């Protein structure tokens, strides 16, 4: 079963802010648009593992590349700089809304 | 009752300086040994493995990647598998090697905790685990690099990797110019731990 | 959602303005190294008692005070202790009793 997204796809991280649970999507990229740099295959879900669960169903993991100028409104360094983060599929939506 | 798994088997503490959590460590470890969760042999083996993991192992791999194109290709394709040849077991994590080029400089951080390729490089330095590094490396990487004495050219893109999942990263630094005649040992000597985290480059004056 | 309604968890530090990085390191004390070994064994493929995510979640929920005041290995030792108790492997009473016995054995006195 292949993942929902392909390399090059524009995606947006869900703007959700759970108060509990073991979340591995950093706060600073919630609601942010980026591009799929790599599709890494299925992995056990840390949100289940963190509370002693079995990690199922597995989620496809993606390496998402964000422009630093998108990530920080006042980014003062080089505009070509980027930040790469691995994010699980259930945290991602297509950026163009389809 | 005699304890045949005396903590002194492993490494002598300076008992005067053993804090409460150090005492708790001894207590919990003894109980787990007694309950068969792990054996003294397993513990000793893990300790030896821990001591073997050190930046020198990473430096060996970098130096070989610099001089052996086939090795480098294999390393980039499946880092975990290739480092097994050096006795490195990444266990439940995967090793990714990210390559510095004239266009891209990579820096590694774990903003959420302190994920680090420990089976290869050993324990991370205190600064890598510090609040300030975790806060600032994603937001102002060049300012952070400057604190390490590392300055990059204007046309280089800084790519920060925030290790949030099961991947563990090392940076493959660029081979410095003028090193063509050097032996493997000499090349390894150029590669500090900080070069493989991305806060230094070989030959640059990294602090610490 | 306005900013004050968006909870940033206390371990989720990326992008918060910070201070100069203290570029220091220390050789691990023997007890610290043993904590690292113990955590590794508990979470390894054979045992998976304390997978990294369980340990991280324990640290992420033990409270901001502890997170900010304990040293790195003190946090891990606290996490190991909580996880093995919660897993039913050891009881708190057993740990407390053994701590007292270790103190006596090593001539350490009461502790803090």
Question: What would CATH call the class of chain A?
Answer: Mainly Beta
- Put simply, the count of helices of chain B is 11
Number of beta strands of chain B: 4
Structural category of chain A is mainly beta
Order of helices and strands of chain A: EEHEHEE
Outline the low-pLDDT stretches of chain B.
Answer: 1-5, 204-208
Shape of chain A: globular
Strand content of the residues of chain B, in percent? 5-15%
> Distance between termini of chain A?
21 Å
Rg of chain B over CA atoms, rounded to whole Å, is 20 Å
Structure commentary:
- The complex is a heterotrimer of chains A (98), B (208) and C (112).
- Helix content of chain A is 8%, strand content 35%.
- Chain A is mainly beta.
- A five-stranded antiparallel sheet of chain A has the order 4-3-2-1-5.
- Chain A is globular.
- The two termini of chain A are 21 Å apart.
- A two-stranded parallel sheet of chain B has the order 1-4. A two-stranded parallel sheet of chain B has the order 2-3.
- In chain B, helix 3 (55-67) crosses helix 4.
- Chain B is globular.
- The termini of chain B are far apart.
- The model of chain B is unreliable at 1-5 and 204-208 (pLDDT under 50).
- Chain C is mainly α.
- Chain C has five helices and no strands.
- Chain C has helices at 30-43, 52-60, 64-69, 72-86, 92-106.
- Chain C starts with 29 loop residues before the first helix and ends in a 6-residue tail after the last helix.
- The relative contact order of chain C is 0.11.
- The chains are: A mainly beta (98), B alpha/beta (208), C mainly alpha (112).
- Chains in contact: A-B, A-C, B-C.
- Strand 4 of chain A pairs parallel with strand 3 of chain B, so a sheet runs across the interface.
């Amino acid at each position: 079963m292949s993942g929902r997204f392909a390399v090059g796809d524009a995606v947006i991280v869900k703007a959700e802010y759970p108060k509990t649970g073991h979340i591995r999507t950093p706060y600073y990229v919630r609601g942010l648009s980026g591009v799929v740099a790599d599709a890494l295959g299925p992995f056990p879900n840390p949100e289940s593992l963190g509370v002693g669960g079995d990690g199922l169903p597995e989620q496809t993991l993606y390496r998402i590349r964000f422009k630093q100028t998108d990530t920080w409104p006042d980014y003062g360094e080089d505009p070509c700089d980027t930040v790469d983060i691995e994010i699980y599929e259930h945290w991602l939506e297509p950026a163009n809304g389809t | 009752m005699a304890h045949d798994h005396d903590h002194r088997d492993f490494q002598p503490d300076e008992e005067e300086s053993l804090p409460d959590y150090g005492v708790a460590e001894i207590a919990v470890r003894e109980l787990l040994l007694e309950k068969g969760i792990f054996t003294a042999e397993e513990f000793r083996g893990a300790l030896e493995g821990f001591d073997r993991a050190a930046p020198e192992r990473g430096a060996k791999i970098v130096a070989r990647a610099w001089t052996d194109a086939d090795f480098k290709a294999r390393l980039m394709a499946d880092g975990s598998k290739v480092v097994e040849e050096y006795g490195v077991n990444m266990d439940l994590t995967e090793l990714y090697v990210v390559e510095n080029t004239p266009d891209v400089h990579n820096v590694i951080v774990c903003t959420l905790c302190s994920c680090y390729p420990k089976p290869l490089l050993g324990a991370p330095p205190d600064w890598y685990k510090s609040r300030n590094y975790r806060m600032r490396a994603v937001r102002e990487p060049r300012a952070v690099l400057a604190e390490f004495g590392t300055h990059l050219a204007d046309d280089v893109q800084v790519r920060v990797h925030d290790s949030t999942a099961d991947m563990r990263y090392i940076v493959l630094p660029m081979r410095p110019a003028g090193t063509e005649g050097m032996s493997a040992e000499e090349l390894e000597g150029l590669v500090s731990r900080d070069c493989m985290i991305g806060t230094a480059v070989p030959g640059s004056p990294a602090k610490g | 959602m306005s900013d004050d309604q968006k909870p940033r968890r206390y371990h989720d530090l990326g992008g918060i303005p910070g201070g100069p990085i203290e570029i220091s390191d220390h050789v691990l004390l023997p007890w610290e190294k043993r904590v690292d070994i113990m955590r590794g064994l508990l979470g390894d493929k054979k045992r998976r008692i304390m997978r990294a995510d369980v340990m991280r979640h324990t640290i992420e929920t033990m409270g901001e005070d502890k997170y900010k005041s304990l040293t790195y290995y003190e946090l891990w030792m606290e996490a190991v202790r909580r996880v093995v108790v919660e897993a039913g492997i050891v009881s708190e009473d057993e740990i407390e009793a053994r701590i007292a016995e270790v103190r006596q054995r090593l001539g350490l006195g009461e502790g803090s």
